[in-house]
Design goal:
Rossmann fold, eight-stranded mixed sheet, 731 residues, 25 helices, elongated
Length: 731
């Protein structure tokens, strides 16, 4: 096995990449959610079940198709218009509806066509409810005549049979409705469709006539009620007006409102009061101006001719008095008469001036008295008008009731006259387009459709079977599941030897896939930890017979080819097998070494090449766990580490034993797990890993052992492992 190291390294690197070694997280995240290769791998694994399921379903569909009774479907079409033709101008025509309303109308028509009433109408006209002939025609079973409600059950069964075979479809963006019926008799199918359409046309007319008659009768009742209501309203308004004394006068106003006598008087007196108030204000203002003013400052005094004459005569007499007093004394006999006459003029002027003032004051008092009188009259009319307004509230309500009743009565009377003219004149908004003809070819069974459905059913059944099996199957079938489902690093794969060779024989050939696998695992171990190859490597598995001893020996040989000194220690003291793989004797071994019956030099054995030394287990120990946990074993490992570059420990399985957990907790020890491709399960492997981690183990990764490379092409994961075997050396 001493071939060039460079060639080893080149091939090992290729194998490390192709076998997965350490897959970056980004590469895992980059895989598509729907992996066609993975799906194909699953399908290939269950291809026999898929073929059997599909073949059985297709065969069953073929047999069922030939056993089915031929059925014929006849079709007829009708056109449904939302607006019927107007015959009279007085007929109402629905306004143009929007798209949603039109669609709702057409769907309502389709629902009417599918209604129970239509099925019963056609059934009665075709005598389908008489006897069991319809059941015989449709190849259906009739209800048991012994049932208590046999007639009702039979009618229900006939209606259901009609509905099950009736087809009503409305094309998109169209007012044409297609009506079809399926039966074993083509003549009956066509006759049923034509009768169905005729019944619907007649039903549509009858429904409209019934609606018109009902509306006319309803309007007649409403018209009589409106007439009586109008009479009662007018009588109540007249009685209230008579009792309250409110007299309404027609008004010429634009709004046509009415007024009362009190309101008219109040308006007139209010206008007179306004005029009287203005006159009083003017008279009062005049009186206040002349009351304390000098006589000559009063315009009436200044304009009075008598007063002007008296002022002129007095002025002359006053001048004469001044002349006399110039030469005579005031009590002179000629002066005294002049002075007396002058006093008389003053009294006359004063009397006339006072008369003018009193006249202005009397005008003011008269205007004031008139204003007060009008105020009293207006106040009385206001109170009377307010009383009439209070009384008019109820009267207005009664009058509005009269007007409303009159308008309602006039509208109902007009509508009743129009409907009376439209009676028995009804247009149909449904027209028959195509008459149903007896079909020539059967509509069912359809061979190709049935086979396609059977094919889909078989595939669905196979998919359900595969899904169920995949859910309950816990086995690890491919290397990718170790990383995807268990979250552990994949260090490599050991394949099953070709051509029936044993693993020991395959390891003799350095060009064999098994030898290449161990070199690939060695390379993965070099990069699994920042410190390179571990000083102590523990090799274990979840259960027995997963190839851990062979793997441990193969890795030891691969590392020894690098020129490093390696010792392989068989720590499986219950079922030792390392000595068989290495081809050494198992006379004295680790048990004797730990019990003091042999020295290290006596126990160590040299392997067949590869610079690998072997420390076999020796005799079977009765207390393996105590020996592995002893201080002597720890001291032995220290001695081995001092002598060798790498110490590889072949440990017992993890589950059921404590030995592997004890060994994995050793200082600076790295652990490598094995998963057998022939029988490893996720549950057991996960339990083993959790147990090791709970004991403080530093797990580098997992090796997928005894993997059949011929199945890797269709592996159930997103990795490609077929590249392991593609590289061949030249002969």
């Amino acid at each position: 096995m001493g071939w060039p190291v460079g060639m080893h390294e080149t091939v090992r690197h290729v194998n490390t990449v192709s076998m997965g070694g350490e897959t970056p997280r980004d590469a895992l995240d980059a895989r598509p959610v729907l992996d066609l290769r993975q799906l194909f791998g699953i399908a290939w694994r269950y291809h026999r079940a898929i073929i059997a399921s599909v073949f059985g379903a297709v065969l069953l569909g073929l047999v069922a198709t030939f056993l089915m009774t031929p059925r014929y479907t006849a079709f007829g079409t009708i056109q449904v218009d939302q607006e019927e033709q107007r015959i009279l101008d007085s007929q109402e025509q629905a306004p143009a509806a929007n798209f949603q309303e039109s669609e709702r109308f057409l769907k309502t028509t389709v629902d009417v066509l599918r209604s129970r009433q239509m099925a019963e109408r056609v059934g009665r006209e075709l005598d389908l409810f008489e006897g069991d002939a319809f059941f015989e025609l449709m190849r259906a079973s009739a209800p048991n005549p012994e049932l208590a409600n046999y007639e009702q059950a039979r009618n229900e069964a006939i209606v259901k049979l009609i509905h099950d075979n009736l087809q009503v479809s409305l094309a998109n963006d169209s007012r044409v409705v297609t009506i079809g019926f399926t039966s074993p008799d083509p003549e009956f199918s066509a006759r049923f469709v034509n009768n169905f359409i005729t019944n619907f046309l007649r039903y549509n007319i009858e429904r409209r006539l019934d609606k018109s008659v009902y509306a006319r009768d309803f309007l007649s009742e409403q018209l009589e009620e409106a007439r009586q209501r109008l009479q009662r309203a007018e009588r109540a308004a007249n009685d209230y007006a008579r009792n309250s004394g409110v007299v309404r006068l027609p008004s010429g106003s634009a709004d046509g409102s009415e007024s009362t006598l009190t309101a008219v008087d109040l308006g007139r007196y209010n206008e007179a009061l306004t005029n009287a108030r203005n006159a009083r204000i003017a008279a009062q203002s005049r009186w206040e101006q002349v009351r304390d003013a000098p006589a000559l400052a009063i315009p009436e005094v200044a304009g009075n001719q008598a007063l002007q004459s008296l002022y002129g005569e007095r002025a002359k007499l006053a001048a004469k008095l001044e002349q006399e007093l110039a030469t005579k004394q005031a009590n002179h006999p000629t002066v005294v008469p002049i002075r007396q006459e002058l006093s008389e003029y003053d009294r006359q002027i004063e009397r006339l001036t006072s008369g003018v003032r009193e006249s202005i004051r009397d005008n003011f008092l008269t205007a004031q008295n008139r204003e007060n009188e009008l105020i009293r009259r207006v106040s009385g009319l206001v109170r009377e008008n307010q009383r009439e307004r209070d009384d008019s509230v109820q009267l207005n309500t009664l009058l509005r009731e009269v007007e409303t009743s009159r308008q309602l009565y006039d509208g109902l009377l007009q509508r009743f006259r129009e409907m009376s003219a439209e009676a028995n004149i009804t247009a149909n908004n449904v027209q028959q387009i195509d008459v149903a003809e007896p079909p020539v070819k059967p509509s069912s069974p359809r061979l190709l459709l049935n086979l396609a459905l059977a094919l889909l059913g078989g595939m669905g059944l196979a998919a359900a079977y595969i899904f169920f099996r995949e859910q309950i199957d816990d086995r690890i079938r491919s290397p990718g599941e170790l990383q995807d489902r268990l979250g552990v690093k994949l260090l490599g794969i050991t394949p099953v030897p070709k051509d029936g060779a044993t693993p020991e024989e395959a390891m003799q050939d350095p060009k064999s896939p098994l030898s290449e696998a161990f070199y690939s695992i060695r390379t993965a171990l070099q990069f699994a930890d920042a410190g390179g190859l571990p000083g102590k490597l523990l090799v274990t598995s979840s259960q027995k017979e997963e190839g851990k001893s062979l793997t441990a020996y193969g890795i030891a040989c691969a590392i020894g080819d690098l020129g490093k000194s390696v010792v392989l220690v068989d720590c499986d003291l219950r079922r030792p097998t390392v000595h068989k793989k290495a081809g050494v004797e198992n006379g004295r071994g680790m048990v004797e070494l730990l019990t003091g019956e042999a020295t290290l030099d006596e126990a160590l054995k040299s392997g067949t090449g590869h610079q690998v030394s072997v420390l076999p287990a020796g005799s079977i120990a009765t207390n393996p766990g105590d020996l592995l946990a002893s201080d002597r074993f720890a001291a032995l490992l220290d001695d081995l580490e001092a002598r060798f570059d790498i110490v590889i420990l072949d440990a017992p399985p993890v589950l059921g034993l404590a030995d592997a957990v004890i060994l994995s907790a050793l200082p600076q020890a790295k652990t490598m797990m094995l998963a057998d491709a022939q029988g490893a399960t996720r549950g057991r492997l996960r339990g083993a890993i959790e147990r090791l981690r709970a004991g403080g183990a530093d797990i580098l990764g997992v090796v997928f052992s005894r993997y059949d490379l011929s199945k890797s092409r269709f592996a159930n994961d997103g990795y490609s492992y077929g590249g392991y075997a593609y590289y061949e050396y030249e002969a």
